Amino acid sequence: MTATPEVQKSIEEVYTKLQGASDCSSLLKKHLTKDVVAKNKSKKTRLGATLLDVIQSGGENLDSGVGIYAPDAESYTLFADLFNPVIEEYHNGFKATDTQPAMDLGEKNVGELADLDPEGKFIVSTRIRCGRSLQGYPFNPCLSETNYKMMETRMKEIFNSITDPELKGTYYPLTGMDEETKKKLIADHFLFKEGDRFLKAANANRYWPNGRGIFHNEKKTFLVWVNEEDHLRIISMQNGGNVGEVLARLIKGLNLVAAKAPFARHPRLGWLTFCPTNLGTTVRASVHIKLPKISAKDDFKKICSDMKLQIRGIHGEHSESKEGIYDISNKQRLGLTEYQAVRQMYDGLKKLIELEKAAA
Ligand SMILES: Nc1ncnc2c1ncn2[C@@H]1O[C@H](COP(=O)(O)OP(=O)(O)OP(=O)(O)O)[C@@H](O)[C@H]1O
Questions:
Q1: Is the dihedral of CA 66, 71, 72, 74 positive or negative?
Q2: Quick one: which residues bind substrate?
Q3: Chain-wide mean pLDDT for the chain?
Q4: Per the count of CB atoms within 10 A, which of 122, 173, 277, 355 is most buried?
């Protein structure tokens, strides 16, 4: 199977557009070389995905940080000429010959994670999420409407079977959810945003809102997103800085779901996700934090990036910080264990709080 001449022409057009875009600094632009285009433009996965499916979001959104997505699991192998260097650069030097370590969520270590901010002076809230793909289904651009609905039905059955008093809750499909409820869930940081242009350009928003929804317990401290960017996003969050409590709840919830739904894992890349930035552990552990003194300094971004921390705005990726509150998380998700990913955030934040306390 080979890509049509039209698709190959579109791939070349994306390449030319990126090379001519002086304002673009995405990893796609850097690693989509003439040679990579020539070697890969005619390839097609067994499900029919091409290099165009991989690069079209970054081609349309020149402000992308990364710019590529995997339309199916095979893409990570078939288009390795592009994925491997992007993965290596994003995940702290994870090489094509490296392998994701076995899963270690840190069950035995949660006790080491004392509250980062017991006096409640800095941290507004803590959240740890991981992504999962259900075995047997491709990713967004290759999913049919029936696939989305079947996955949602399967997940509803699993949610209904949860009896743990802390975790049990209700699934709310996006279809039929009233605008007011939706807006409030998004504003309160519980639900994913709609109409993300990066995902739209990657063909990830088809048949919306069918098959999409959110499960949460009564306190909204354990949540599962269904069919947004990934098949599943499993989330634990609460106010304050008690990372240990948040992690313990995530582990409990993840184990419950995993016992009923087999997830797709790659022998080298770990848990599989739609975006290569989430491969491996898929863990993003974040706090919403106020650091008025050090965040005003010129070297704040550098201090964070030296500690492998990522800074986002208050409403998530591609949003701005408001009222001096930042979303700070681990950046690397591949090439370390789940516990180490959480620890990367934890140790870095401990240091940032010390610096804030010491700042004049
Ligand atoms: N520590 C936190 N406390 C409260 N809300 C949070 C925290 N971290 C992230 N959020 C909220 O979670 C929502 C999703 O954020 P965002 O999309 O950036 O991250 P994500 O779910 O990790 O996925 P992705 O990295 O794929 O974008 C946003 O509303 C964001 O404000």
A1: negative
A2: 65-69, 229, 275, 317
A3: 96
A4: 277
Residue carrying the six token digits 């289904």 = 137
Q: Which atom of ligand 1 is nearest to the CA of 126?
A: 1
* Ligand 1 centroid from CA 316, angstroms: 5
Residue 189 is assigned to a ligand binding site: yes
Q: Which of 237, 246, 287, 319 most suits a substitution to test ligand 1, by most atoms within 8 Å of the C-beta?
A: 237
| Both structure tokens of 37 | 């285009």
Can you list the domains of the chain with their CATH numbers? 5-90 (1.10.135.10), 110-358 (3.30.590.10)
pLDDT category at 1 given cuts 50, 70, 90 is confident
> Which secondary-structure segment (H or E) carries 305?
helix 300-306
Coil, strand or helix at 311: strand
What gap in Å lies between CA 309 and CA 351, rounded to an integer?
11
pLDDT tens per residue, range 25-46: 999 999 999 999 999 999 999 9
- Using one digit for the tens of pLDDT, what is the confidence trace for 133-191? 999 999 999 999 999 999 999 999 999 999 999 999 999 999 999 999 999 999 999 99
Show the ligand 1 pocket: residues with CB < 6 angstroms.
Answer: 125-127, 129, 189, 229, 233, 237, 284, 286-288, 312, 314-317, 327
Q: How sure is the predictor about 358, in pLDDT bands with cuts at 50, 70 and 90?
A: very high
The DSSP code for 282 is: -
